[in-house]
Structure formats: structure tokens, C-alpha cells
Design goal:
By secondary structure, the chain is an alpha+beta fold. Helix 1 runs antiparallel to helix 3. GO terms for molecular function: catalytic activity; FAD binding.
Length: about 475
């Protein structure tokens, strides 16, 4: 990548003031600080400016100026990423491009079941707008009140609805993108079939802004369910959870929209730091599954189907106990338990986080074998294992032993624990990054676990689209 001088950066910043308005070019430390540290506070960078364009044309103007002055750009949405993908490096040579002002919902087509939104629209606003039109936008994750559609697309976010609806990639039909040369590609086509060449859309989804800047998207909508049934089921092991998942698929088919696995320790941790959230069962159980059915017919039909499924599960011994939400408030309380696990972890102290995925059939074996390896390497380490069992994605996190200083624990064991987990994932045919992206956190792991052929193809695409290397350098493929 071409190095830029301080004079060139100053000229770039001045030109950006003319292009998008001085009020939207932030350079003072107290103004730029919120944009320079990632959500986990793992990375803090520096920037020559934080730029806040308000239109796609202004984004294009910024990119054209970046080409002229050779200034690298770091696109940023809600800054809720977990891999440092939207944080600049420490050189001060890069500029952050915040897409927060691109926050308009451009269109909603109920017959085509699509919504066209700009990159800075917050996920919950998309959900709400769809609901007002009698439609469902099914992407749902803990940060939905602050993450943006552009960031969701940039990382190909997953969330709790992947089992039924797929990742963000599966929910997107078309994109508008500013290329690394500052051109605007208008691919906002709400088509479910379009075989007219290479699938450019999928190149940009999951690329974390390294190939261009997503400015708008056409997203799929679904019919709003007539009823939802939510329950917590207690099980003896991850193997039992897998058998229960198979039973749920047989009984509920496409009505099964959520199947989340949580270890006993996860919920104990939530109860420790959020006492108002009580443990849902009278007796402890090794594993708890949060499952949800969404029915387009009726509440009665959904509950009848659910009761039939649970009767089989309890009679066969797969499920040890279960509690069913009787109303919307109880359903929300069940999901709150799941969503407070990361918050409880943060309260407990620093920990080693992993966002991994293995084939669903290998989840239980992965947990058993990797738990044993970690226990042997770090006696007393506490496993916070939870995630989307229905699609094989686990947040497989390691908390320091009780009473051990968390910072010292990380300094001593993080590299070793990462290697244990990633080698186990590799043996099971899995991936070290399921839904959080690569960012800067996992660039070295990408180089370690991707084949040389894959890496060459990725780098060839990057070089072809971004020959100057100005789009989010140092992220994803490095």
C-alpha cells in the first residue's frame, strides 16, 4: 500500500470539508474518540479524521479524494463489531468513514417482500418498519439496538434466526456499493433469480469493507408469524441436545426458528450478576436449550405441535425438564437470559472468547474433547459455552479459574487456549470465525488455517478491486 504524507492527509481533510461540509469532518480528539475504540475495548487506533457523509454521492466523493491523496479508509457502522474490523490502526494515517448518517429507509415493497435501506439504518429500525407493514425482518442479535445494516452485511452477521432464515447474506437480494475507485455500483435489484454474470453482491457481503463501501441494500422480508411458542428445555449433555434438535426438526420442520444451547454455568453466571434473572429450573441441569417455534396458522396449532414434540422428548428421556412461556413477557424473559450471557461474562472479568462453528453433528464431540484439553492445560478454567446449536455456531469462551486475576490469566494462557480451540475446530472440519468476522483480530489465524489456494484467490480479488490497498487495510486477508 502506498504510504501517505502528513501534507497529503491535511490536503485530504481540507478537501473533505468542502465535499461533505466541515461539520461532518471530525478531527478534534473529543469528537473522534468514540469512533476509534472497538466495542470490546481491545483495540484503540488513531485517525486523521472521522468523516460522516450523508449520501452515497458524498461517500463516492470521499473515496475519490482518498485515491487522489492516497489516504486509507476504514468504513464503520454502529461500531459494535467483535473482531476490530472497524477500528483504524495506530498510525493516524487512516480516515474513518462513519455511515451513521446514511440512515434512510428508501422503500418497502410488501408484495415483493423486500425493504430497501441505507447502510446506517439501525437493525431494530428495520425490524420495526417491517413489523408496521405486517412483515418480519428476521435478523436478530444482541446488538440490534445499535448495530447497522451495513455492518451486518460487512460481517455477514448471523444471530438467533439463522436456523430458519439464514445469515445476513441469505437475507440480501441487492446492494449499492461505492467501489475503491469512487464509482457507484447500483445493484439494488429485488430479484430472487438473476443469472447474468458473476455474483458481485456476494463479493462485498462479509468482506468487512475491504473491497468497497456498502451504502444501501435490498433485504428480504417474510410473513409475520401468527404465533410463537418459546420454551426452555433441560438436558443432560450436548449429545442429548443434538438428539433433541433432530426430534425438533422431525416434528416442527420449518416452524423451528430458534434452537440455542446454553451450559449450566452460563445461566449461573447470569444469575450471579443479574439476580433478577432467576435460574429457570428447581434442579441444576448440565445443558439448557432455548427453542422457539414460529407458526403462520394459529397459536392453538403451534402449541399443539409443541406439546406433541415435548411429550416425545420427555418420554424418551432426551429432555429432563421443560418450561413453556405462557405469554410474550415470559418469552422475552427467556431470550433475556440468553442475551445476558455476554454481559455477565463482562461483569465476571476478562475472558478468552471464541466464535467457532463445526458441522452440527460434531458439536457434542467438539465440546467434550476440547473441554478436556482445556481442563488439562488450565485446571479450574470455567467454560462459558453457548450459541446457535441449530447451525453449529458456538461462542466457546473460557473464564479464568475462580479467584484468579483475569488479566494475568489472559496474559499467561490466551495464546495457548486459542491454539487448543482452533486445532480442535480444525480437526472437526470447522471454522474459527462463524459470525463475528476476521477483522484484525484473526488475520493471523486466517493465514494459518486457510489453504494457500484460498489465500491466493482472496488476495487476487483484493488486488483486482483495490489495487491501491486503501479499503480497510490490514483486515481480513491482511
Amino acid at each position: 500500500m502506498t504510504q501517505t504524507t502528513s501534507t497529503a492527509r491535511d490536503a485530504f481533510v481540507a478537501a473533505c470539508r468542502d465535499a461533505i461540509g466541515a461539520a461532518h469532518v471530525l478531527t478534534e480528539p473529543h469528537d473522534t474518540a468514540p469512533f476509534l475504540t472497538d466495542w470490546r475495548r481491545r483495540y484503540t487506533g488513531a485517525a486523521c479524521a472521522v468523516l460522516r457523509p450523508g449520501t452515497t454521492q458524498e461517500v463516492a466523493a470521499i473515496v475519490q479524494l482518498a485515491n487522489t491523496h492516497r489516504v486509507p479508509l476504514v468504513p464503520q457502522g454502529g461500531n459494535t463489531g467483535l473482531a476490530g474490523g472497524a477500528t483504524p490502526d495506530g498510525s493516524g494515517a487512516q480516515a474513518v468513514v462513519s455511515l451513521a448518517r446514511l440512515n434512510r429507509i428508501r422503500a418497502l415493497d410488501p408484495l415483493n417482500n423486500t425493504i430497501t435501506v441505507e447502510a446506517g439504518v439501525v437493525l431494530r429500525q428495520v425490524q420495526d418498519h417491517a413489523r408496521e407493514a405486517g412483515r418480519l425482518f428476521p435478523l436478530s442479535l444482541a446488538a440490534e439496538g445499535s448495530c447497522t445494516i451495513g455492518g451486518n452485511l460487512g460481517t455477514n452477521a448471523g444471530g438467533t434466526g439463522v436456523l430458519r432464515y439464514g445469515n445476513t447474506r441469505e437475507l440480501c437480494l441487492g446492494l449499492e456499493v461505492v467501489t475503491p475507485q469512487g464509482e457507484i455500483w447500483d445493484g439494488l435489484r429485488g430479484l430472487r433469480k438473476d443469472n447474468t454474470g458473476y455474483d458481485l453482491r456476494d463479493l462485498f457481503i462479509g468482506a468487512e469493507g475491504t473491497l468497497g463501501i456498502i451504502t444501501a441494500a435490498v433485504m428480504k422480508l417474510h410473513p409475520l408469524p401468527a404465533a410463537r411458542v418459546t420454551a426452555l428445555a433441560a438436558l443432560a449433555s450436548p449429545h442429548a441436545a443434538l438428539d433433541f434438535l433432530a426430534l425438533a426438526h422431525r416434528c416442527a420442520g420449518p416452524l423451528l426458528t430458534g434452537f440455542e444451547l446454553m451450559s449450566d454455568f452460563c445461566l449461573r453466571l447470569v444469575g450471579r450478576h443479574f439476580p433478577q434473572m432467576r435460574y429457570p429450573f428447581e434442579q441444576p441441569h448440565a445443558q439448557i436449550v432455548l427453542l422457539e417455534l414460529s407458526d403462520s396458522e394459529s397459536e392453538e396449532h403451534a402449541r399443539a405441535l409443541f406439546e406433541q414434540m415435548m411429550e416425545q422428548a420427555l418420554e424418551s428421556g432426551l429432555v429432563e425438564d421443560a418450561v413453556v412461556a405462557e405469554n410474550l413477557a415470559q418469552s422475552r424473559a427467556f431470550w433475556d437470559l440468553r442475551e445476558h450471557i455476554p454481559l455477565a461474562q463482562a461483569e465476571e472479568g476478562l475472558n478468552v472468547k471464541h466464535d467457532i462453528a463445526v458441522p452440527i453433528s460434531r458439536v457434542a464431540t467438539f465440546i467434550e474433547e476440547t473441554d478436556a484439553e482445556i481442563a488439562a492445560a488450565v485446571p479450574g478454567a470455567r467454560m462459558v459455552t453457548f450459541g446457535h446449536l441449530g447451525d453449529g455456531n458456538l461462542h466457546y469462551n473460557v473464564q479464568a479459574p475462580e479467584g484468579v486475576d483475569a488479566r494475568a490469566f489472559l496474559a499467561q494462557f490466551q495464546a495457548q487456549l486459542n491454539r487448543i480451540v482452533y486445532e480442535s475446530v480444525y480437526r472437526q472440519g470447522g471454522t474459527f470465525s462463524a459470525e463475528h468476522g476476521v477483522g484484525q483480530l484473526k488475520v493471523d489465524e486466517l493465514k494459518h488455517y486457510k489453504s494457500s489456494v484460498e489465500l491466493r484467490l482472496m488476495r487476487a480479488i483484493k488486488a483486482a478491486l483495490d489495487p491501491l490497498g486503501l479499503m480497510n487495510p490490514g483486515k481480513v486477508a491482511g
